[in-house]
Structure formats: C-alpha cells, structure tokens
Design a protein that fits this description.
It is elongated, with a radius of gyration of 25 Å. It contains 11 helices and no strands. Helices cover 76% and strands 0% of the residues. α1 runs antiparallel to α2 and α6 runs antiparallel to α7. InterPro entries: TPR-like_helical_dom_sf. This is DUF2892 domain-containing protein. Keywords: Membrane, Transmembrane, Transmembrane helix.
Amino acid sequence: MYNKIIKLIIAAGILAYAIYQFTEGYIGNGIMFILLASIFVFLYFKNEFILLAFLKLRKQDFEGAKKWLNKIKKPEAALVKKQQGYYNYLHGIMVSQSNMTEAEKYFKKAISLGLSMDHDLAMAKLNLAGIAFSKRRKQEAQKLLNEASKLDKQGMLTDQIKMMKQNMKRSSGPNQQFGAGGSLRSQKRRSR
C-alpha cells in the first residue's frame, strides 16, 4: 500500500513528462500521459482498495471485501480523511454481523471522520440506532433514527426506518407477558 503523497508525486512526474512531450511536438503522447496522470489523481481521492471492497460487498462477498480492506496497512497514512471514514464504515458493516460492540466503534469513527454521501451517513446512523436499540438505549436510538430519516432524502432507507420505529413502539409497550401482571403475592390475593 502506497502512501497517499506518493500518488501525487507520481502524477506530477507524469504530468511534467506530458508537458515535455508537448514541447517536443508529440501531442498524442502528451495527451496520453495527461490521462495517465489523471488516473493517479483519481486514485488519490478514491482509494482503489476501498472501491474493490465496495464491489465485493455489492455481491455479498464479505470475505473478499475484508481481504481488500486488509491490504490497507496504515489507513491514516494511506488514506485521506473521507477515505478513512469509508474504511471504518465498511469495517462496521462487515463486523456488524458478528460483534455489535466493535461495529458500533467503527460506525462512530466513520461518522466522526465524515462520509461524502448523505445516504451512507444515514445508513451508518441507522446501523448505530439498531445497535443502541439492541443495547436498550432507546433515547439514543430514537435520536439516531430521526437523524437517519432526515439524511435519507431519496427515500432509499424508508422501509428500514419504518420497521425500526415499529420495533421500538412494540418494545416500549408494557412488559406483561401472561395476562395477569404484578407480583406473585398480588396474584395469590386475587385468587382467594
């Protein structure tokens, strides 16, 4: 994994060589080298391993996505801030299947670093709301759910948000499971 600065240095070197090609009269070569330099600039802003991990996740291949993310050894040095957010976001999605506490840590870090798309931010907050709800922190879950619904402008998460709200309403009802509530002593008094 290359440091993010190396990509910019390579792009600058290729761009300088493209300018040299233009001055020598090789216009086609110069254009080709400018396009090549633009690839390195693109990869500075969109990390190739994160893009490949997203492709694996679209196919529900969690092991393949984990393999690509593990190729990033030092995310702080190799990734810009938003990419670090997506790095943690992807880890949170993969870990949420098995370890809720660790997934919560990854999602919180992803939100603090920032995600460039509102849909991804809404998804992270929805997952955090689900984790908070499962840990019986209903007020925090409700707050995160409201934030997620505000961020979901295209309505892609509407069904999941409705389902989560219904689950929260069901669980906030009384905890009576067997008709007659109260203590054992009060039930004995009623039967007399």
